[in-house]
Design a protein that fits this description.
Three copies of one chain form a homotrimer.
Chain A (H helix, E strand, L loop, with lengths): L1 H22 L4 H22 L6 H4 L2 H15 L1 H6 L1 H25 L4 H22 L13 H16 L4 H21 L15
Helix pairs in contact in A: 1-2, 1-4, 1-6, 2-4, 2-7, 6-7, 6-8, 6-9, 7-8, 8-9
Main location (chains A, B, C): membrane
Membrane topology (chains A, B, C): Multi-pass membrane protein
Protein name (chains A, B, C): Trimeric intracellular cation channel family protein
Amino acid sequence: MLHILYIIAITAEAMTAALSAGRRDMDWVGVCIIAWVTALGGGTVRNILFNHYPMSWVEHPEYLLITAGAAILAAIIASIMTKLKKLFLYLDALGLVVFTIIGCQIAQQINLPVFIIMLSGMITGCAGGVLRDVLCNDVPLLFHKEIYASASIVTGAVYLGIEYLGASSGIAIIVACVIGLALRLLSIRYKWQMPKFVYHEEWH
Amino acid sequence: MLHILYIIAITAEAMTAALSAGRRDMDWVGVCIIAWVTALGGGTVRNILFNHYPMSWVEHPEYLLITAGAAILAAIIASIMTKLKKLFLYLDALGLVVFTIIGCQIAQQINLPVFIIMLSGMITGCAGGVLRDVLCNDVPLLFHKEIYASASIVTGAVYLGIEYLGASSGIAIIVACVIGLALRLLSIRYKWQMPKFVYHEEWH
Amino acid sequence: MLHILYIIAITAEAMTAALSAGRRDMDWVGVCIIAWVTALGGGTVRNILFNHYPMSWVEHPEYLLITAGAAILAAIIASIMTKLKKLFLYLDALGLVVFTIIGCQIAQQINLPVFIIMLSGMITGCAGGVLRDVLCNDVPLLFHKEIYASASIVTGAVYLGIEYLGASSGIAIIVACVIGLALRLLSIRYKWQMPKFVYHEEWH
């Protein structure tokens, strides 16, 4: 079940990533690379930081084909995607919570401390988008957009909290996904933001 | 033979990288770091992704000295390099195919699937230039320039295809290098590009 | 002793990093992430390059809490920090030499060649600031500011040189720290810079 949601999520992430690449006039190779980095980069960064090999896309090269295909499709049907903007925002939110749960589970498997498990969820959920923005030469959206990384942290905390209270892993996943999704979607709807820190003194 | 070409290639990559650093008014430390990242970064990224240690430049620290020396030389003789622009474009193309073949061979040694072997070649050939552009705060050239990553993929595919047909590794290397080089040089000469995806709707 | 200096250094790095995040109008999550990357990123990059696991912040998650707390405090008292600018420049210089020594020691433990030990010191001292600048979409300051990476290299060279001459590790650390700090602080005071390489010919 989580695996099916994962495939849906990487496909959706790859498709929206393709539009970011289009804003920078990239060619189709660039579109594919940006899609790979966005959809699979979060898990890749997590695995590098926690020395967890092999990468999922080395064991399942079909993930690379699925995301490349989805990205090129998105480039072809870009005008339709613009109309489906809301659907893709929802799928991106789904991806965020699914990636987060998977990141927490992998950190649990390798017995990391509880704070690092939550961080692993956040890295898995968010690092792909940060890499996309770095490669597109933008300041990462993550750092000044609506509740995003925070929704990932909340998802991880709820998941761990419910498991700690003795519930089965399945129930913890469902509750955490629902709460995380609700938080993210409400923050899009009502433009909730974390408090911002604005500082323009000359320092260096 | 491949090893000699490798040394020539990292030297040439380091020299052209130095000019990129010069466009950003970097000091000599910056020039050396950009040269290292460009010349040795592709293999380093590949090794991190596939958990293949130690790095070549840890086993052979002389690679760091060669590339640093070449970069500082390039900064000194920058006006001569401008006149030799074509030579360095050719050497860069040579580097692309040599790095690609080496990347494929290392992935073969650790028994990765065939699609990942080609990807390993492309990462080895291209990631150094991407890191250079990120550190120089440019959108990576790779993503919107002439046939570059594609030439790397073709080189890897030809190499694997010919080996698969039963030819010796040496013949496969030579044929793949010739075809890859020809493709890259023709694409520079005739400004061949991959189709571009341009999309400027507001999305976020 | 070195450990206490390390805690002071990561705290100071996190606080100045928060101000960089403020220049880009980041929210508090962004501030924390930039602080983590700046304070702990150098050691993390070194560990990835030399396959040295686990990360210090996985073994000591309290480092993440200390730096996040320091960063948020810095955002709150930003106006006071502006007045203490000099203090933080000194603490940043302290961080540079402390990180450098620690980076050299870890490379010594895993028996790397002498040139790589110095490079490990420089990476540990400098890579966090480079990552901060990449995430804030700046050309890394390191590459065109006063003597910075060079001070790190000198610190490492003095440390190794004195140990080689037969002195105890403690004496080597103290002398290297004093010389490295003096070099860095004098270069700030008198605006010493490495020679710059400026090159604005069109190349690509």
